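Before a colleague's protein record goes any further, I have to sign it off. What it holds is a sequence and that sequence's fold in token form. My question to you is simply how this chain folds and whether the tokens agree. Thanks in advance; the entry in question is below:
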Amino acid sequence: MRADHPLLTYGERILCQQPFKLLKGITSASLAYPIAERMEKRSVRPKLQELRDYYQLPYQQRQSIIAKRLAETVRYAGLHVPYYKDLFASIGFNPDRIENDINFLNDIPYLTKDIIREQGHRLLSRPLAEVRHHVCKTGGSTGLSCFIYYDQTGADYSSAVTLYCREAIGKKKYLSELHFACRFPDATVPEWPSREDFKCFAMNRSNIFFDRIDDIGLEEMWQTLRLRKPYLIHSHPSTIYALACYIERKYGGGKAFSVFESSGELLEPYMRTKIEKALNCRVVNRYGLAELGVMAYETNPQSTDLYVLDSEGVCENRDLDGNNELIFTGFHNQLMPLIRYATGDLATIDERDDGVYLTNIVGRIHDIVNLAGVDYPTHHIQDILDHRVGGIQEFQIDVRGDKPILRVVLEPNADQATVQAKLEHFFPDAFILEFVNHDSFILVGHRAKFRHVVTK
């Protein structure tokens, strides 16, 4: 049966109403999720309980655990990761010192995206062929993209952290959630049921697929939200801000969900204010990155400060042109441990009696670009380039002229003619295409930062 069959559409409408919605949520949490976890050979729920127990401990008690985990991470990297083996030998670094004094971490040089790109598989503790792994591509909003590899344990901890954080703001497993995702131009209607259908049922999650944020696309989003009425939605703030402006302009406001969880880019104060007012919801911010997962979360409804998840790693500040750059060391990804990773994001670290908080966060901006009369967020364009075009290492769109210029850096093994044909298929007559090297990208701002869209 096709996923758009009228019977399934009718069934969805029924399951969006009470008490069927509650029954579906309870079945998802108590039955479908454990089955899916076992089928996928994952271990998330034990790690979720581990997090619950860990954060019951006072911060002073957790500090000794943090120091021990940090020492174990650095020691493991020095023994098993070629890059760190050579680095520690060259600087005469002894990881055992850290457990007694965490300040010895300062002896290790910072890790950057450039180093990750340059070192490649020398940052892995084991060959990828020998271990079950997951790959993530960084977004490129704070520097050129690179690939990060997670082992299964690291991926399971990342999932458990998301569940724990949402649980901390009242989002229990039986309450529904909705995720905004890219709709690809060549997408076809899938058959039902599929593996993705069961995954969504187990997660008590549904998706909104979108490809534009003009009035037509925003109205489609709104009608879907009004039908499903999820407890929590997860998206980039620029997308939901556009939706809030549209709903306020057309309807004077409205309510279709309780919590908006913002991630992937900077949540500006004006965005928060507009979303809260126009969509009548609570806005929750989080700080996560492809390199490490969710590392800080806004848990207090009375404050916009983000609570650092010290179970997952430690954070530091380094001075960068008079600003505080965020530095993280992660604990749980033994396949590709990142030590003192320079994120490119700015934030102030504030240590308090109950833990560490991030304030004054600056970073991760996703632009909106108009192509052939349609507004697209850059994360949507990147999804198409990554998952439909392929062979592209990095891109930049220059909109300063009469027609946008798309500059593309190809992967070493990519075929230029194939990439060009696919780009013309997905974005017909939308831009002038240029194949370039990285040094042809235009850097913007006083810190010469890379941005996907150049406007001036």
